[in-house]
Amino acid sequence: MTSITSQVSKNKTVDRKVVERWAQTAALAADDKLAIDPVILNVSELLTITDSFVIASASNDRQVKAIAEEVESRIKAIGGPSPLRIEGLSEARWVLLDYGDFVVHVFLDEVREFYDLERLWADAPRIEWSESDIASAR
Question: What is the pTM of this model?
Answer without folding.
Answer: 0.86
